[in-house]
Amino acid sequence: xxxxxxxxxxxxxxxxxxxxxxxxxxxxxxxxxxxxxxxxxxxxxxxxxxxxxxxxxxxxxxxxxxxxxxxxxxxxxxxxxxxxxxxxxxxxxxxxxxxxxxxxxxxxxxxxxxxxxxxxxxxxxxxxxxxxxxxxxxxxxxxxxxxxxxxxxxxxxxxxxxxxxxxxxxxxxxxxxxxxxxxxxxxxxxxxxxxxxxxxxxxxxxxxxxxxxxxxxxxxxxxxxxxxxxxxxxxxxxxxxxxxxxxxxxxxxxxxxxxxxxxxxxxxx
Length: 269
Prior knowledge:
By secondary structure, the protein is α+β, with helices and mostly antiparallel strands. It has helices spanning 73-97, 115-146, 149-184, 239-267; strands spanning 10-11, 17-21, 24-28, 32-37, 41-47, 50-55, 65-69, 108-111, 186-192, 198-202, 208-212, 220-225, 228-234. The strands form two sheets. A ten-stranded mixed β-sheet has the order 1-2-3-4-8-11-10-9-12-13. Strands 5-6-7 form a three-stranded antiparallel β-sheet.
C-alpha cells in the first residue's frame, strides 16, 4: 500500500502542479488553488503526459474532470496508481452503503486573481509602458529643440501625472465593474468556513468558492459574476469601496491639474 510521501508531485504547463495531501488532492495554478477532498474523487487517470482527476457524480450526471497537462509520463502513472489505491477502500465502503456523492459540491476553489483582475493588470502594465515611452520621447525631443530645462520638467512631472491617471483608471474601472456585477450578477450567501474570517459560497455548478472577509458576521451577502463565479462583490458598496471610488476621482483631478501645471511651465520656456 503506497503512502502519501511515495506519491510524486506533478508539475505541468503554466506553473500548475498536482499534489496528494492528507485531505485529498490540491491542484495549484497561477491564479487559483482547487482543493479536492478524497471523498469527492472517483478515479485518477494517467493519459500520456496529462493526468485527469474525475470526480464522483450522482447517477445520470456527467462527472466533472480536472486535468493537468505537460507532466512526466512515468510520474503521471505513479501518481494515478498511488492515489487510486488509496481511495479504492473508501469507495468500496461507500458503495456498500449505497450513498450518492456529488463530488463537485465538496470541492473548494480559492481564486487569487479573477479574469477581470488579470485583464486590468495587463491594461495597467501597457499604460505604464506607454507613459514611460512618452516621457522619454518628450524629454529627448524637448532637449533637442527647447533646451536643457525642458527634459528636466518633463522627466519630473510626466511620470507623476501618469501615475495619477493610472491610479484613477484602476479605481474607476473597478467601480464600474462592481456596478455591472451588481446589475447582472447572481445573489448568494457565503457561509463561514473552518478558518477565522474565511467563507465559502456555491455557484450554479455547485462548486464552492473561498473568500476572506474579516469581521463580516455570521454570513456574507454577495453577488457574483455568472460568467466568472469567482468574481464577486458585496450586495451594497462598503466604506472602503466608496473611499476607493472617491480616490479615483481625486487622482483623476490631480492628473488634470498636473497637465495644466506642466503646460504652464513649458509655455514660459
